[in-house]
Amino acid sequence: MSAVDSLVCFALYAASRTTTQAYRVLLDPWNLTYPQYLALVTLWNDGDQTVSGLGEALQLDSGTLSPMLARMESAGYITRERRAADERVVAVSLTARGREMREELAHVPRCIAVGSGLTDADSAHELISALQQLTVAMRDLRDHPQTVLDAVGARTPPA
């Protein structure tokens, strides 16, 4: 057993990486990346979005999001339009092709659930809830590291 195998962070990293690779295999026939799929899911479920709203929902910065949306627009899945009321705001909408893909990709969540061993909706909700709690806790640690360092009595390098 490798030393990293006993680290929570490595288990999360390995699970995340392998999950993304599984999505890659499932999405490859449509020439979609995992982040592009997430953008489509957001648009299918929540409707039109602003670029900034989509970036916030997907936790992507504009340097990553803008080129991804440009590729999706070139592929015919979305349109981007500046809003007349405020030209700084860009709205993202699905095209007819983007809407059609919802049915074509409907099997993907089921494949991921079966592949991950989640046998029912309750077990999926439990895992999602635990991961969301972890995300909130890690965000708090990221934003307020000194609180945790003090709580565990960690030594920090001299200033």
UniProtKB/TrEMBL annotation:
Superkingdom of source: Bacteria
PROSITE patterns: HTH_MARR_2
Main location: cytoplasm
Residue ranges of every copy of the HTH marR-type domain listed in the record: 5-136
InterPro entries per UniProt: HTH_MarR-typ (IPR000835), MarR/SlyA-like (IPR039422), WH-like_DNA-bd_sf (IPR036388), WH_DNA-bd_sf (IPR036390)
Pfam families: MarR (PF01047)
Signal peptide per UniProt: none
Family annotation (SMART domains): HTH_MARR (SM00347)
Compartments it resides in: Cytoplasm
Full protein name: MarR family transcriptional regulator
Record organism: Microbacterium mcarthurae
